[in-house]
Design goal:
2 copies of one chain form a homodimer. By secondary structure, chain A is of the alpha/beta class. Chain A has a single domain, classed as Luciferase-like domain (TIM Barrel), CATH 3.20.20.30. Helices cover 37% and strands 14% of the residues of chain A. The first copy, chain A, has 14 helices and 13 strands. An 8-stranded parallel β-barrel of chain A has the order 1-2-3-4-9-10-11-13, surrounded by 7 helices. In chain A, a hairpin with a 4-residue loop joins β5 and β6. At the A-B interface, α2, α3, β6 and β8 of A face α2, α3, β6 and β8 of B.
Chain lengths: 447, 447
């Protein structure tokens, strides 16, 4: 949220593409979902386009989608480590859950990626809404929405403290005196809260960008409050300019309410672009993907998303009435989105599936490179975005097309960088250096 | 434990060397402890020597050693991911704790490394004895030795089940039919034990080597029983041939008692080799490292190792009497080793520190390339080893010397491979393919 003259671009990467049928389409090679070199290539393509970052989502279960789901292969941070050493500039963002990990392990893992990449790591904070995920960690049913966010807040507080536990300059590394670290600049955090007790310090020094970037994607009331308090970038699904503007204004007001500057948080709506020489060809390209959607897979996915079993429901009837939002313990943002789409009862389940198939609720857009650029420019200039979460429907081709055909237009219009001017992810997003709560403090206990 | 005609070699890597003063020595560049390219280079050197694997240890705290400790930088699995994509053959083993992580997360992390590396991942199982580690995870004091191993057993049982949850061939990846996975070959594990409840399946398919190799290094009674039951390779600190033979025989008997074949577990004693053209030069090289040891650091480290505060103790007096082993809740193997060394009261603390400085209790050996090769051959042929855990005192030079000067001698003698003949870590160690408990099973629940 800022008056920047240029916007930011993140490439949200998933298997061989975001479209659920991408791996069945002739424009992809399905076996590459298992190939780390494919993902390294995607990182290099993003870097060729001077993109701010790449991002991998994650979930901690295969759920009921196993028959048709190509996504469950790599853990994102290990994957990004392999991409880090194949790239030099692009930021590297991974999802990790606050519900099913420990702050110490998570802080360490992301700091390690930050060291490996020279300060390019980012953490997309999720609270893991799924009952299938809960069952892999000894939790029955879906953990309550409010409890997940309470835990997430304490989790992030501890993680931030651990990331501050080594000050800049704590590493002395002086072979003459034999001093590796200045104990006066390495601090215990002594956190003692309702869910976590963590002494610290972290077992890894501060990284080149101070600490990993905090990213968030929840759009529920709790999610937006959480983002306004902690996040530095927000991924969001907004289907119309008006909805995007409303979300942007709402989040901006919350950020300011929390005592932060509006520019401290960047809002990045998602877009699934189908790009071709003409609008007609682009729409035909999109249709060629839609034609490959498996109704069986989609109904399972929609059932999981809604928490309502639709697998016996007719594809050509409207969606049955859905329970009210406040009864939902799962992913509220996605639930509300489907509820809105189905509100007037005019869409059949089959039509709804087609709409959702491209980007699981994110906006799809089929057009020429100029039309895509126009659309992004409009959202940026009309106060709905600080940048965009680019979700190529197929990979690597869809990212190639965006980088080679859309980015140059954005650069010509002065809307996007022509060279990297920063070395860290934080720098790419134009975020000022983070402070350190311990800077200058004296902490004998950790000496 | 086998009658193999050739032995196995693992390079245990740590910062710029195992000797605690390595980073102060002119043969190293201290700043490289922070440089991922340094570690990628080490992986490539090990591969040049056709070594079976490289290994990184880990701990979940900085403890009291922060002033002089150069080790706390990278989390091993993220680091090995970066090394995986810079190498093609060498195995990649990392320590991870059963006390402070979840089976689902750990199984996923190592499977991800296994996919990234094409089946070269190994897990060194530790139970985390330190009070400083406990304090970072909400646990007061040192967790009881027995409780740690009980948790470790259930943890490994769950992890093995998760690694079996996808059968070989479960991934169909057929674009024509739209089938990614065969649900009949992907299984829930439905584990319900005293410490963990985990439904499964894992959210990642089976890897090229079936599952990561299991490695273990504890030499306590519980540690040896654990190793005999689960481990496929054991790292161990043995200071004399006789002790090595006794350990080997003991472990072999335990392996057989657990119904396994003796050859299912490889015993790899550690050795810290100082290599030079003459024995005299090698000993002078070792002394040049010993001269750089910081007594302040060493006393803190020894105090931590023993759980006895020696920081006010005279360097030139013998060690004070130590409490009996059964009162120790921490690392029993290392404690017993120091107790043995100090048993007759003839060593001063300063001398003990010198002995321990090279490899923290592992055997150091200074000699010519031929002498090092002779020593390894003797241990192998005399029934004390299936291979060796090579711990270069300084890096990369100490590994270069071993690979370029000792390995060719071993190859000439027919004791070590001249080319890789396998593609996986499991293959390098000559371990037969693991089975899968679910192979052929019908599991409708996960369909």
């Amino acid at each position: 949220m800022s008056q920047d003259s240029q916007f930011h671009l993140n490439a949200f990467l998933m298997g061989v593409g975001h479209h659920e049928a991408a791996w069945r389409h002739p424009r992809t090679e399905a076996h590459r979902v298992l190939d780390v070199a494919h993902f390294q290539e995607l990182g290099r393509i993003a870097e060729r386009g001077k993109l701010d970052s790449v991002f991998f989502a994650d979930g901690l279960a295969v759920g009921p989608r196993i028959k048709h789901n190509t996504q469950a292969i790599f853990e994102p941070v290990t994957l990004l480590s392999a991409i880090a050493v194949a790239t030099e500039h692009v930021g590297l963002i991974a999802t990790a859950s606050t519900s099913y990990s420990d702050p110490y392990n998570l802080a360490r893992k992301f700091t390690s990626l930050d060291h490996i990449s020279g300060g390019r790591a980012g953490w997309n904070i999720v609270t893991s809404a799924g009952a299938d995920e809960a069952a892999n960690f000894g939790v029955d049913g879906i953990p309550a929405h409010s409890g997940r966010y309470e835990r997430a807040e304490e989790f992030v507080d501890v993680t931030l403290a651990l990331w501050d536990s080594w000050e800049d300059g704590a590493v002395v590394l002086d072979p003459e005196t034999g001093v590796f670290a200045d104990p006066g600049k390495v601090h215990t955090i002594d956190h003692d809260g309702p869910r976590f007790r963590v002494k610290g310090p972290l077992n890894s020094p501060r990284s080149a960008q101070g600490r990993p970037l905090l990213v968030q994607a929840g759009s529920s009331e709790s999610g937006k409050e959480f983002a306004a308090r902690y996040a530095e970038a927000v991924f969001t699904a907004q289907r119309t300019l008006e909805q995007g503007q409303e979300f942007y204004r709402d989040l901006e007001a919350r950020v300011v309410k929390h005592g932060r500057n509006a520019g401290d948080l960047k809002v990045l709506p998602g877009i699934v672009p189908f790009i071709a020489d003409t609008e007609e060809e682009a729409k035909a390209l999109e249709q060629s993907f839609t034609d490959l959607i498996s109704p069986e897979y989609s109904l399972r996915q929609l059932s999981t998303m809604l928490g309502v079993d639709l697998t016996k429901h007719s594809l050509d009837a409207p969606l049955p009435p859905l329970p009210p939002l406040d009864e939902i313990q799962g992913n509220k943002s996605r639930y509300q989105l489907v509820k809105d789409l189905a509100a007037d009862g005019s869409l059949t389940v089959r039509q709804l599936i087609g709409l959702l198939g491209g980007g699981r609720g994110h906006r799809t857009f089929a057009g020429t490179p100029e039309q895509v650029a126009d659309e992004l420019q409009t959202w940026f200039e009309q106060g709905a975005a600080d940048g965009f979460n680019i979700m190529p429907p197929y990979l690597p081709g869809g990212l190639d097309d965006f980088v080679d055909r859309v980015v140059p237009i954005l650069q010509q219009r002065g809307l996007f960088r022509t060279e990297y001017t920063a070395t860290t992810l934080r720098g790419h997003y134009g975020l000022t250096d983070v402070g350190n709560r311990f800077a200058g403090a004296v902490d004998e206990a950790s000496a």
